[in-house]
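Hello Y.,

Per our agreement to keep a running log of every chain we model this quarter, I'm adding this entry. I've kept the format consistent with earlier entries: sequence first, then predicted structure.
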Amino acid sequence: MAGEFGAVLRRLREKAGLTQDELERRSGVSVSTIRGLETGKRGNPRMTTVRQLADALALRSGDREELLGAAVPGRRGDGAGEAEASAPEGGAAQAGAAQTGAAQAGAAQAGAAQAGAAQAGAAQAGERAVAPPAASAVRAAPAEAAEQLAKAVAARWQREEEQRRVQDPYPLPVRWKAARESLTDHWANIRRQPPGAPSGPLDLSGRLEGIAETYRSIPSGRLVVLGKSGSGKTVLTLRFVLDHLRSRTPAEPVPVIFSIGAWDPTAVTLRDWLTEQLTRDHPGTAAPGPGKISLASALVDSGRVLPVLDGFDEMADGLRRPALEALNATTLPLVLTSRPAEYAAAVEETDVLTSAAPIELTDLTLDDLDHYLPRTTRKTDRSDPAAGAWQPVLKRLREPSPDGSPAPLATVLTTPLMVALARTVYSDTPEHDPAELLDTERFPGVRELEEHLLDNFLPTVYRRSRPGERGRDPERVQRWLGHLARHLTELRTPDLAWWRLGHGLRSSTRTLVTALVTALVIGLVDGAMSAAFSGSLTGGVLDGTVVGLLAGLLFGLVHWFTYTATGKDVQPSAVRLRIRGRPRSTKWRAGSRLVIGTLGGAFFGSAYGFLAGLLRALSVHAAPASALETGLVDAIVFGLVFGGATGLSFCLLGLLETPLDIVSAVSPGSVLRADRRTVLIQLCFWAPVFGAAVGLGAGVVVDLLQGHLGRLVMDPLSSLMLGTISGLGGALGYTLTLTAWGQWCLLARVWLPLTGRLPWAVAAFLDDAYQRGVLRQAGAVYQFRHARLQSRLAQGRRRG
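Predicted structure for the entry above:
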């Protein structure tokens, strides 16, 4: 019957005009399962899967019974079909709604809900054993997570819109029109029309407040927003997310903004990258979901996330074509923003974005400027309250030029970015007169005017002291921000992540600084503890020097092999440690931690024991053979001790970890504080547990190996000293080399300020730049207010 079912499924799918990928998106059944069913490689399909496929195909009563009959022998005519008589009509209505507007994007969720209704009907017909109760619970987990994600996204971008002063005094009138036909796919594909059906273009013109309605009018659920630099694409995506969430139904996916400029399509797939970014910006989605995958992966795979991909033009030149090809390989509904030239170049190399309707933002007009700029200035003339600094400038712009061409300033002020910069530099600043922008000798062209506004933005915003803070030197600020801008340019990403600030250094420098600082810290701790236990300052200094150098070398190697050699980042922790009040759904997964910790500790202990034993034997002038034997014996003993202690400590840490809440507010500062809190708790837990395990384990291992490796000596005082020093040193070494907060302290708080690249209070400086409008927040990372500002600062840094 599997072969018959596959043939029926394929025929009905082709009849509906759907590909396997489209059926996956509608039904929630993976494409590999659909392919296996149609080819007969997967037999005995579950009734839950069959009903999901039937609902997604919007089958009528006869076709539905044919599909169910092919899956279950003898089903036709047994009375069960009457129990489901209402399901096909509901499924067809649901599919019909999905084909109009953006509800297409929520077809997978709708299919799942309809499948649940069909299961209830089947249960009343005596088929309770077909769908176990766990199945509905598994589907409910991502659905509940999607609702929590929607609340978190809405709260975040509402705060960000207020911070960016988008509504002060009112949003600039961003408008758009349909893009040219060469960048547009066939309208039949955009409209999702079956073959032979008449189709024509959609009316896509609109304004900022209608972006959500424009998107919902596109049956394919795919929109491309094109606009020149500074035309308001990012503000448009922000408004789209807020308006879409305000009118969103539970069946529709949650719009989430992703900075696509940070994606490398040649290294990671789109779905995996979306999952990583979702976990970064919403750490609560790292919690386990259905099927041994994270909630983030479940949300992306089930179509409950609507990707809003901002900044296609910010991708490296060689990555845009593979990125567009990767987007075309999926049927995900999405919104993509880009400058027209970069998108057109990618289209020329491959093809348009399949089924996507492109729109292009239009320029601001002089009427728009007349309505906006005068309302942003202070009222300085009491005799004429309506008078302001901008009125004479705007009046001059309306006067015809001798050659009939528009004034350079009129051309510059056609984009919201330049209008915002002009407002910052000249509005509410009595010492600046916008009339100077009309000086054609000083500013002969558009480029000079734009560079003037960009260069004066920082001095203006930093000349004003914020309440409770001292003013900052604009020149030093420009140097620090220039370093950050160049850092992002070299990394080819718009995301300024605090845990990656050290990546502006060479990898060799980063590893060397990590090893040296770790050696210094552990050496000081070891020397002080050794002197306290032995009572000899000289012995403590000698022991601290040896242990510090060995620990720095070994921890430096561990850091190199773990991160530098593999090209990985030290990511912030996505969990918290909790002993009491743990959620019942938390799964204790410590097996992998036990294995990794044991192997890593055994390697460290063996290397440390061999070097320490070898140096100790050579210090008393032992023969080379005897010194080598001592080193090997100590390597075995310390390898067993440290391997067992590290595995036990890592295992216990894994048992105490619980996921973060999805609805918890996420910002760069909150992620930094949460990671610091988690690391400090780990350190306080690690030091006593690891120290006790090493101290007690040393005695146990010595007793077990006594006689097998010769005469071994480990007195209680030595065990206590070894456990105390190992606990403190191991905790500090782990923190500095293997945690994001430790690397932040070591590189961003010490090395980069010491070399003049950044201020000492880096976190406060970044938050201050955000409050002044130089940076913006994008979840857990900062970004420069605009790519033009970042590029200008990076150029100034190179010139400096």
